[in-house]
Amino acid sequence: MLIKPTAEDFRVVGFNLGRISTLVGAAGLVPLLWAVVLREWAPAFSFVLMIGVFALMGELGGMINVAHRRLDWSHGMVVVALAWLLVPAFASIPLALSGHYASVLDAGFDAMSGLSTTGLALVQDLDHLASSLNFWRHLLHFIGGQGIIIAALSIFAGGGVVTLYLGEARDERILPSVRSTARFIWAAALMHLAVGIIVLTLVAWQVLGFGFMRSLFHGLMVFFAAFDTGGFAAQSTNLGYYHSTIFEFVAAVLMVAGTMSFGVHYALWKRRYRSVMRNLETRTMLVTFGLTLTITIVGLAATGAFTESLGLARYGFFQLLSAHTGTGFATVSVQELAGWSGLAFAGMAIAMALGGMGSSTAGGVKSLRVGITVRSVVTQIKQVLVPEGALVSRSYHQNGRVRLTPELAQAAMTVSLLYVALYLAGIGMGLVYGYGLGEAAFESISAGANVGLSVGITDPTMPLLLKLTYMGQMWLGRLEFVAVFALFGFLYSTWRGK
Amino acid sequence: MRRFAALVLLLSLVGVPAASGQESVDVADLLEAPIDYIGEVSVVGELIGDYGFRSDDSMWTQLNDDSYAFDPVLDDGALTGGNIGVAVRIPAELAASLDPPGGYRVRGPVVEATGVWKYHDPDRGGETYIDVVGLTVVESGRGLTEHPTWLVGAFGFVLIAYAIFMRLRSGPRRG
User: What is the ipTM of this complex?
Assistant: First the structure.
């Protein structure tokens, strides 16, 4: 029997959404300050409005009297799923008021894309956009990538926070408590922030010859987009704007750091290099990267666009890394990417679909699930081949020896299949609107795996239903289904429960 | 758009001088069929973003020839989609006296750039750009005026004030 949620359940959800609203509103002070310093008054006023809306929501949530603030599993999941809808809806206010979007929905699309670290964009005339608005778009990558919830965990006290953590698709507890884990994640992010921005700024200033303040601006933007595997860029030609191997190299290092799970970051911090290399997740990622890179390079060579191997390797490697890490940076034009037919196209699409590591900012199926699925199938085959009664090892290394139980294998395969279904749903919608199978598949995978590379479908003129489909894919893909399913269950119980 | 149409008309009447063999093209066409245009080309558009003066006496920037190059959004230009731009590498001496590049509140100089279209240039690690040899300023850069809506800010301040008032009334909270 379905149990109807009580008024207390709604109060707990509302109270916690209020807390998260307060936090995002506070984050809005940063671009507001930026706008005031640069005297960008029109964006400044729109940031004031956005902060006001978040502050009011926060206070309304805070007024709710809750008997106990301890979140149970379903509360946590519902809060996360709703937060990931409400935050982009209100974070899009400054974008919608900028005049650079054809509709409120388009602004919401970009906010969802930013927060989910996807990077698909519907902004128009980006090259004339106010820098404070550009900053806000990129800051959304950072807020979403590091996790709104993670931030809330680090700051607010309260029981049952583990469900919030899990709801945001982070299942790795690096330190004994979730709160200390959350703080480690923020510490690691801030350390990368400092180093990343310094290096990028210096390269832009000394090598690319930009002015110092503009170098700092580009350094900040590229850091947010690279480390949070987002893919937005300050200029319309994306990372191709910089025309620099060194700059691309620094961005690539940050992309790899962003796609690594925070468990790996912690192991590297503790100098457990051998353990990291023995991890099933690391090995799977290296193998899939090697295979898809080979496919892409061979396919790219066949197109004849590159007449020498250095350019082929540079562009093939960077684009494939961008796809596999879930970043979505592009160093070639949308038109050229759309022309990468055959193997190059397939290599990129497979890499996007597989995605990065778990408990990171990357999307997609994730390497650990791919590794567990493959290991499970191999174990089954071995079991059939060995003599009856013989034992086949059913374990793998992931920060220590882990037993490969049927439940674990089933869970990995289920989520993998859900991702396939998510990709297929977007492909189907693309086909309905008359796009070719290849481009529909590429764009759908890019949205569902939170990558952000585009072959041109994502455009302000694309059908409304397709925009909503891609937004839904970003939301589902980022939260890895569970929190969204819990929200649907909560709503259904409200309607049909007793 | 009116300014864009007028500029196109003016250019067609005056007849922009182009060296022999240089083909006047749109950036969109260059990107759509890059191999077809390898060689000398001529493009007209706004210089936008940054001027990156490098150690090899060249300056890199971006040239956009979309409608915003003539009518930016801030100047009440119509929304016509994403930007359409291409990288240009300009000899430093040609770039020395250019107006600041386009951006927020700035419409950069509109230039006619003539040069060699390099598609995945083997000499520069596979980069794609126009290696400019000649530059003519068609229209100087100019400032753009933003139109802040005071009402938006005022409403925001009212909401913030009300939220603070609610916080003060409810007193300190747990958690």
Answer: 0.89
Q: Identify the three-state secondary structure at position B139.
A: strand
Q: Which of A12, A22, A36, A127 to mutate to test the interface with B (most CBs of B within 10 A)?
A: A127
Does residue B5 sit at the A interface (CB-CB below 8 Å)?
A: no
Contact B104 A235 (CB under 8 A): no
Q: Which residues contact A251 (CB under 8 A, 6 or more apart)?
A: A200, A222, A226, A239, A329
The minimal CB distance from A127 to the residues B79, B83, B166 is found for B83
The answer to whether B155 contacts A49, with C-beta atoms less than 8 Å apart, is yes
pTM exceeding 0.90 = yes
- Domain residue spans in chain A? 1-171
How many helices (H) and strands (E) are present in chain A, helices listed first?
23, 2
Q: By the 8 A CB rule, do A331 and A240 touch? A: yes
Contact A124 B102 (CB under 8 A): no
Residue in B with minimal Cα distance to A44: B153
Domain range summary for chain B, segments of one domain joined by +: 2-146
Which residues, other chains included, contact A362 with Cβ-Cβ below 8 Å and sequence gap of 6+?
A229, A258, A259, A325, A326, A355, A356, A450
d(CA A21, CA A84): 11
User: Domain B2-146 carries which CATH code?
Assistant: 2.40.50.140
H or E element in which residue A289 lies = helix A280-303
Mean pLDDT, residues A47-70 taken together: 89
Instruction: Round to whole Å and give the CA distance between A82 and A146.
Output: 18
Cα separation, A200 vs A292, in Å, equals 28
Query: According to the model, what pLDDT value does residue A132 have?
Result: 98
